Amino acid sequence: MNEVFPLRTVSQPFINYSYIIFDPRSRASLLVDPSWELGTIVNKLNELQADLKGILLTHSHYDHVNLVAQLTAIYHCDVFISVKEIEDYGFKCNNLKGVNDYEVLSFEGITVTCLHTPGHSSGSMCFLLSESIFTGDTVFIEGCGSCSSQGGSAEDMFKSIQRLKSIIAPHVRVYPGHSFGSKVGEPFNNLFNQNIYFQIDSMKQFIDFRMRPNQSNLFKFC
């Protein structure tokens, strides 16, 4: 079974989570949304004696991609992001590979299914493994990403969350791009109790609530 190593990385005011996915038999690894602390990531890869096969990007916002250039220069690995994100935002980097909804990537013991989940950005993507899902800014343990930036859509976010609710097994652990008080890696089933956006089944109610005026903070979810 693949192992997941969460890395909390900081550049105030940003606090992100990057993740190393590691296969202990082959030592193959993938890196999800590398941000802020190059030394933290490189040191962990070295500690694991990991063979970095690729970088998975959930979307192209700067706080999720800012170490891509440095890491590709070091490891010469491929970088995977949705075709839609490339087309709509013009994202570029070395060794870039566009991927589509339901495309499957395989790397020496690691198999990843790409799921297009727009809402936070038009090309946002979640990456699903047998025991884990990496959700970027689509789904947090406590809520969902903002829908007001370029390409964002509360309607699309509602559809994406409904889709995830219908296809993700209850035991799959959720690894988002940020934490707002909850521990990353909660089982998907727990979000039905902890995440208010999982409890809204009406699209209109969802949109009205996510886009409600006078929110003191887009990341205070109730």
From TrEMBL:
Task: Look up keyword Hydrolase and say if it applies.
Answer: yes
* Cross-referenced Gene3D superfamilies: Ribonuclease Z/Hydroxyacylglutathione hydrolase-like
Superkingdom is Bacteria
Q: Which InterPro entries match?
A: Metallo-B-lactamas, Mito_Persulfide_Diox, RibonucZ/Hydroxyglut_hydro
Q: Which GO molecular function, any one, fits this protein according to its record?
A: hydrolase activity
Residue ranges constituting the Metallo-beta-lactamase domain according to the UniProt record: 15-178
- One Pfam match, by short name? Lactamase_B
GO process annotations (BP): glutathione metabolic process; hydrogen sulfide metabolic process
Q: Give the reaction(s) catalysed.
A: 3',5'-cyclic UMP + H2O = UMP + H(+); 3',5'-cyclic CMP + H2O = CMP + H(+)
Which controlled-vocabulary keywords does the entry list? Hydrolase
The free-text function statement in the UniProt record for this protein reads:
Counteracts the endogenous Pycsar antiviral defense system. Phosphodiesterase that enables metal-dependent hydrolysis of host cyclic nucleotide Pycsar defense signals such as cCMP and cUMP.
The protein depicted here goes by the name MBL fold metallo-hydrolase
This protein's species is Paenibacillus lutrae
